[in-house]
Amino acid sequence: KIHPRVGTRSQWDEKIPQRPWRRSQWSAGPRNATQWDDGVRFRPRPEPIAVARRLPAAPPQQAAELELLAQVRGAAGVTDGDEVAKAQQAAPGGAAPTIFSRILDRSLPADILYEDQQCLAFRDVAPQAPVHFLVIPKKPIPRISQAEEEDQQLLGHLLLVAKETAKAEGLGDGYRLVINDGKLGAQSVYHLHIHVLGGRQLQWPPG
C-alpha cells in the first residue's frame, strides 16, 4: 500500500510540470558581457589572440656582457648537468682570456671576499651550497694539471686563502674544496679555480 503523501516517482513526475529543454539562443556562439542566458549573466569569453613581436637585439657590447655573465654562471656548478655540458664545449687552449680575466680586471662585477697580490676570492653567482665561493690565482694557469714547479708557493697560498676565507664565512664545522680539471673533470672555465662549498651537510660521492 502506498501512502497518499508519498506516492510513486511516476505519480510525482506527472504532478510536477516539466520544463521543456531548450538550447539557449546564446549558447551557439561566444557570450559577451551584455548577453544573458536564462537570467544568468556570463563573463566575457576571451578569444585567443596570438601576437608575434620581434624584440630588439641587444647592442653588441651588452650582448657580450650577457654572454660573459652566462659563462660566470657556467663556472658555478660542481658536477651538475649544465656544468658537464658546458665543459664539453669549453676551449682548453693555453692562457687565453676567460671570464675570470674580466673579473680580475674589474670589467665585470663580482662580490669579492678577499684579494691580495696573488689571488682573488669571490662569491659564486650560482651557489650550490649556502656558502659557495671561488678562489682564483691572478696568474692565468689554465688547469691544475698544467701547474708548474714554480707554482708551488702560489698553489699553497690558494689553499691558505680558501681556509681563511671559509673561516671568515663561518664554516667552522667543515666545508669542501673542489678543483675541476679538464673535460672529464667538468671544467668549464680554463682558469684554475677552487670551489669552496659549505653551510650544509654535503654528500659523498659528489657525482
From TrEMBL:
Cellular component terms (Gene Ontology): mitochondrial matrix
Span list, region Disordered: 1-42
Active site location: 193 (tele-amp-histidine intermediate)
Bias kind Polar residues: ranges: 24-35
PROSITE patterns: HIT_1, HIT_2
Pfam families named among the record's database cross-references: HIT
Signal peptide: none
Motif segment (Histidine triad motif): 191-195
GO molecular function, one term: adenosine 5'-monophosphoramidase activity
GO biological process, one term: lipid catabolic process
Family: Belongs to the HINT family.
Protein name per Swiss-Prot or TrEMBL: Histidine triad nucleotide binding protein 2
Source organism per UniProt: Bos taurus
Gene: HINT2
